[in-house]
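Pasting as-is:
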Amino acid sequence: MILKTGGRALFQHEDFDNYKFEEIPLDRDLFLIDECYLHQYENAMLKVFDGKKYQHVGKVGYIAARVITENTIELSWYPNGNDRFHEVTITLPKNQFIACVGSEKYDEKPRLFVTSKWLENLYLRSYSIFALIDAVNVKIALERGEMTRDKLIALRNAIDTLSAKYPEISFISFADSILLKSNWSVRYFKSNSQSDYQPEVFIQLASEINTIYQTTLGLSTYTVIAQGSNEYYDDPLLHISESCNHISLNSLGIPFAQLKDIEETARKAIKEKIHIGFELYMDEQYYHSLKYKREFEKNAGVSNIYQTKMMGNPCKYYYSSLINILSNLDNSVA
């Protein structure tokens, strides 16, 4: 493929490495960059090939390509490398791809050029964290007649009180479960927007809700947590119809699907005695994005493989007690 703009072919020097869409290198560091820098980058590298010093061009994002299909690329995107390790799975449609160019001879990582509109949307859209909290041994409590209406009302009232402290998070109760959701955004270098990603709050909430369930129902809970892209990226946390009898969670995307996939895999693992039941089950991207104390060896955490239809490769979830994670979070953010 020969890239042309204004009738002129780009990146034709022999020291450029040009990658077709289906040839983009997998599982290695790449740069993500706006198509507006095509000419500037070519000129900067031509000077390097001519023995001159490289002049930095544009603002790059950090990514790795994971899976390539006929029409899309699944990417790992790292929107924050300053104060936490944060990986988000995103999808680049083929029609938003412009070029992939590097120079192995000059130790220049491939740069993935994409359309300006797609890149801006990537930074300006909102993302989500989801948590599913479920009670343990509900069936036994029902059979024993221990799930009285008074206890359930007490549970509901306690959740009302707790939710009032967290207006930025939605609380949806159904049956013996609670679904939590919050939206977050990333820092965008072209505006004054800052990242407001605070995943540690969900660990604290998991602990508080577990205490509420124990106090009101005499039951413990477990929590499943995931984070990432949500196709309802310009919408509020919830949609409630004017008639007040339709509630939409405004949720469609990888992390919402992961909740069910992790829960089902964990249940099967417990049944097959791969691991015992725990209070926390966290998708690996969420788990690694938490801010821990320096001495905490997060990579030594125990995990299990699970598969989700929303991603091309197998994933991991980490399982742990609440106290293990809570006690090892950085106190400045916990």
